[in-house]
Amino acid sequence: MNMAFSSHTLHHGSGVTRRLCLLCKDYFTRNIAITASRHHGSLVSTSLPDVDTEIEKVSVHSLRGKAMRAMQDRLKKRQQMPPSREVKMKDTQVWSDVYPTAATFKWSAVPLSVRMGYPVRRGIPPHKLGNAELMKIPNFLHLTPPAVKKHCAALKELCTDWPAELNSDEVCDKHLPIAMETSDYVFSGPSVRSPKARVVQLKVKLSVLPLDKHARWKLIQLLGKSYDKKTDEICLTADRCPVRKQNQDYAMYLLSVLFHEAHITEPWEETDATEDDMEEYTWDSGQSKANILRVKKRMIETDGNQSQLSEDDICSTEDVEKFKMAYTELCNNPETQDNLASYKSAVLDLVGLKQKTAVDT
């Protein structure tokens, strides 16, 4: 390679001349080393020299020299990282002090050679150092047997003995009628706390509440699907608040509001309520009683009987009493063959017809 430098270029300054000379020297040195390695077959290192050697070759006032000296100062000031906690941990370490509560996996605090992840090129899974897979899953490092025993011993001082009188489920339901049901989940996510754990269900028997007939009917109408007629149980679900304790308080508040609202009688309830709105059919307030009285009075007039019978006398007759019992049973209970047959027989007796019986031939 032919390289020529004009006198005008060399007289720009000693700094430029020095840098050009260094570049040429470095170029020729590397070419000679590579040529020698090709001819003699020796392994010659072509790596860059260290920082101190480069600094000595560079001018003090050049930009490269200032940058390299600044880098050297930073390297000298850099302190060595302290050892992780797992290295300094003793054999007598109390583990509940390391993991007192539920927390994400910390590789520097667990003195175990844990590996997890996909093995690359048929190798072993990645080590725990900076392993994101170990941070994704929940762990039970805070629930070791010594830690659980320690927690139970701390809570035992705050607990009282179970009352001896509450020796059966029936007695517990009598004295403690309200039940709160919650669920805890093992949640796989950034946080070990599942959002579904805040849901609270309040359950109580309707029969244990001090309600009159009107309040019971109105409370059932207000509850809607929250009341199970088969089990006579109220089930209120609260999940609108972010914390479980808040949902428990809201469920108790909701039950109190429903209870007090059921005892209030609005004017429209006395005038607009129909038989379909009632919980059960009542003979005295139903339309069937008025219809039966009208039919019986017409039958008496048709027979030519001039005796005036009161409504109480008509309702106390045997056929009307039979019809009353059969119709009330049919309205308040599921439809079966027995109550249908009783209702049919009562209607035939009421209108004075004889029921035909099937005769085997």
What attributes does this structure have?
Double Stranded RNA Binding Domain, ribonucleoprotein, Putative 28S ribosomal protein S35, mitochondrial isoform X3, 361 residues, elongated, four-stranded antiparallel sheet, 16 helices, mainly alpha, disordered N terminus
Summarize the structure.
With 361 residues, the chain is mainly alpha-helical. It has helices at residues 7-10, 14-40, 51-57, 63-77, 85-88, 95-98, 132-136, 145-156, 169-175, 213-223, 244-262, 267-271, 287-302, 311-315, 318-332, 337-351, and strands at 179-181, 200-205, 227-228, 233-238.
What does this molecule look like?
- One of its GO terms (cellular component) is mitochondrial small ribosomal subunit.
- Keywords: Ribonucleoprotein, Ribosomal protein.
- It comes from Stichopus japonicus (Sea cucumber).
- By secondary structure, the chain is mainly alpha-helical.
- Among the domains are: 88-159, no CATH class; 169-272, Double Stranded RNA Binding Domain (2-Layer Sandwich); 281-351.
- Helices cover 47% and strands 5% of the residues.
- The chain contains 16 helices and four strands.
- The protein has helices at 7-10, 14-40, 51-57, 63-77, 85-88, 95-98, 132-136, 145-156, 169-175, 213-223, 244-262, 267-271, 287-302, 311-315, 318-332, 337-351; strands at residues 179-181, 200-205, 227-228, 233-238.
- Strands 1-2-4-3 form a four-stranded antiparallel beta sheet.
- Strand 3 and strand 4 (233-238) form a beta hairpin.
- Helix 10 (213-223) crosses helix 11 and helix 15 runs antiparallel to helix 16 (337-351).
- The chain is elongated and about 140 Å long.
- Residues 1-13 and 32-48 have low confidence and may be disordered.
